[in-house]
TrEMBL record:
It is a peripheral membrane protein. It comes from Lactobacillus porci. This is UDP-N-acetylglucosamine--peptide N-acetylglucosaminyltransferase stabilizing protein GtfB. One of its GO terms (biological process) is regulation of protein stability. HAMAP family: GtfB (MF_01473). The gene is gtfB. NCBIfam families: accessory Sec system glycosylation chaperone GtfB. Belongs to the GtfB family. Keywords: Cell membrane, Membrane. It is found in: Cell membrane. It comes from the Bacteria. Required for polymorphic O-glycosylation of the serine-rich repeat protein in this bacteria. A stabilizing protein that is part of the accessory SecA2/SecY2 system specifically required to export serine-rich repeat cell wall proteins usually encoded upstream in the same operon. The GtfA-GtfB complex adds GlcNAc from UDP-GlcNAc to the substrate protein, attaching the first sugar residue. Stabilizes the glycosylation activity of GtfA. Has no N-acetylglucosaminyl transferase activity on its own.
Amino acid sequence: MINLFYSYNQQAQDLHFSLQAAGFDEPTVVIKDGGFLPSKVASPLRFFLAQAGSDFAGRPRYFNEIDLPRYWEIKANSQNGQILDHGQVRGKIEYARQDRRRMVAKVKWLDLNGTVRAIDHYNQWGWKYAVTSCDAKGKEAMTSFFASNGQEVLVHNHLTGDYLYNDPDGKLISFGDINQLVAYFLQVSGYDASSIAFNSLGTCLFSAMRVKPTPDKNLMFWQEKSQGGVPDNMRYLLEGNLNQTKIVVQDQNEYQKLVGQLDPEKAKMVHFLGQIYPFKRENQHRSRALIFTNSDQIEGLKKLVEALPQLHFDVAAVTEMSSRLLNFGNYDNVSLYPVVRDDDAAELLKTDDIYLDINYANEILNAGRRAFENNLAIFAFGDTLHAPSYTALENIFAAGDVEGLIHELETILADQAAFDAVLKRQHEFAGAETADHYRQVLGEWQ
């Protein structure tokens, strides 16, 4: 039995954690490998690179350690970087994560017109494991993947969709598409693919259908949004075209929408099951509110601070703060943290019990998710919301409705039961589950 995920995005990570927490600790394979997968998560690419003798040791490259033409320079911040030749941008650096460590995942090289012509891909061990060439319009044309010793292992033609694999015996194996490649990997890698849990009705499903022999049991986790109707590939599964398939929908609203369009018998094959989240602590109902911000544009901050003297506001930024924001340090109930350190940011998430997602511009430090994991009560305005997956609809206020937010904060600060009700709503909205419920729903599949 294996888990087969298309990518290792936040939803896939949550599903993986949920399955493990419930005792379903099956091997996990991710199809789209961007070079930074956890060590215990497999991928076809990593398997092929290992077969070619790759040494999976080392550390990621930092922004100032990439391969660079002589005399060119790099300008970088915590979000991204640029490569300059006499002041002209000739490259763009993308980081693996937005965590200020500036670990390089991609370098996009530009021609004199600013069009991407090549992309260097770096992995968590610091070697350039792939190079993509692009056409005159910047469209990806060909990607070559390399082992740590420089051997070309796999070539992907983006125009035709096919792959060419150079196996350890020197034999060239051609695959017409990614589905054939994944099916081949599952058959030669030694994994037990007799039962497959997958989270995509595209590549994952088509790959599972090509595995020989066909899996005996299948478990489909639907983590996307349907476009008004039941997806055709889901109907294909509901018609019994793949052995013993159970469908699990991980969003409550999406589940209600789908089963409402199915006849009773088909609806019985579809189940709702949220996620088991890695909550780090219980909320202590303290009168402390946290704001992480990337700018001094914070909706209604002056009104909030002055209307709620009983609430202490911690405002943290990863950069220096403007004079406008620094002026809030004159209030007794405000503490400012410019250029906040990672340790201090983590400590604020432990000591504060309310998170105000009310800053404009980009989210920093994955703030919404981290606030949710630390059980902070999250509030936002409709035009400042960064973490819609973890913010209950009742806790999202209309743009400019600062008075509404003030009233809600006054209520929960004065009434612990009201505070707990907000947290319960938040958990229910995000689909927080228990290990027992996971085992109850999935037990028979195993």
